[in-house]
Amino acid sequence: MALGKKKAKQTTLWIEPSHLRTHPAHPFYRRLNEILDQVHFDRYAERLCRKYYAATIGRPSIAPGVYFRCFFIGYLEGIDSERGIAYRVADSLSLRSFLGLDVGERTPDHSTLSKTRRLMSLGTHKALFGWALRQLAKEGLLRGQQIGIDATTLEANAALKSIVRRDSGASYDEHVAQLMKVEGIEEPTAVERQRYDRKRKKKSLSNQEWVNPHDPEARITQMKDGRTHLAYKAEQAVDLETGAIVALTIGPGDQGDTESARETLTEASQVLAPLARQAAQNEAVGPAPGVAERCLESVVADKGYHSRELLCDLVEAGVRTVISEPDRGRQHWREQAAEQQAVYANRRRLRSENGKRLLRRRGEHLERAGAHLYDTGGMRRVHLRGQENIAKRALVHAAAFNLSLILRRILGVGTARQAADRLRLLFSWMLSLNLGPELACWLWVAAFSSREAGHSQDWADSQMAPLSTGC
Description:
Elements: H1 27-38, H2 41-48, H3 64-77, H4 82-91, H5 93-99, H6 110-119, H7 122-138, E1 146-155, E2 164-165, H8 172-182, H9 190-199, E3 210-211, E4 219-222, E5 228-239, E6 245-252, H10 257-285, E7 298-301, H11 308-316, E8 320-323, H12 337-351, H13 353-375, H14 387-411, H15 416-432, H16 437-452, H17 457-470
Parallel strand pairs: 1-7, 7-8
Antiparallel strand pairs: 1-5, 2-3, 4-5, 5-6
Helix pairs in contact: 1-5, 2-3, 3-4, 3-14, 4-6, 7-14, 8-9, 11-12, 15-16, 16-17
């Protein structure tokens, strides 16, 4: 037998579409596209972004619906960078179908996504986030009465070793060399600088003295795991009854919780106010499944948000607070009667059964939303620079999270990976019972279709129960 060798093949000039291999669309993305088409998502996105495109005919660009769908894929697939999104879309036929692109069409490049993101303003991305909340309200998945608020840190796309002095522009190594020169050590080596800096007392990195020239808005922050990095602060407000994200803000990493809470709660009030007015108008005709007439009744948070000023401001705004109180010892209330009344009322609500129930919901919904957005959603470390750029990406992420709540009600899963995990578990269970993979695949498709038809997960479990009991 002769040795076979790889030969260079000449590419064909024309391929008939009938010769291309057909592929079934992914059921999760197919159902998501059906939902987006029902609410005319592409028409809304084109109307929202019309001002950014030229009226005359020029170089073709990606459609606004395709742009936002690419970032939806970033959340659903857990891809952290725009370059990774472009690679994933170019490599998947199912994602091409989700974007509405044929096999021969070119997928969006990462540079095109980046330029389009910089072109569109932050207000446009906020409008898309509000559109997703309106869809939740129509499905009855938004109440807006009891809001939980929490924050986390996002590692910035900037190195801590690149920081410079704000006053002189000297790097950290140059600053240490200047300190050694004052003590009479001329032209130290790198090893001598490290040894001197290690033994130096009272050394600290202050944001008032140091800045990264490549990302000036990033701040030196202690992360959740104890490390020190340049970071941003992401804060989200979550509906404690449905788990929907009603507001999300990005701020400096060293900003306190009591400072950022005001901005986040203001954003939540601005978003919920028109939904509440719409619900009040609908109630005049018939019962509305969405938000109630009165929104933002209670705010639930952890100990970091407890301060006299914040509690007093929320009481003046007519909002009840259930904020955990740290142990500060004996307190003095001279000429602070309003603050004392607000703190004592918050303390009574913490001890009530309703307050304990709200704190349990906070631990359930807030931690879950943070895990989906930043851990499995791929935004724990950002690959963008600038507070506004990160806020744009985070808002589209939050909109995709809210849309996944609708999919979870319809299909029982919120992302494509969850659907794949269920399929993997079902295959393992069926193979352990020696029933074969074909039957497992058929049952999974039947259960998936039952959710689309309106059946509950209990119905799908009941269809599979006789098999498990019989075996």
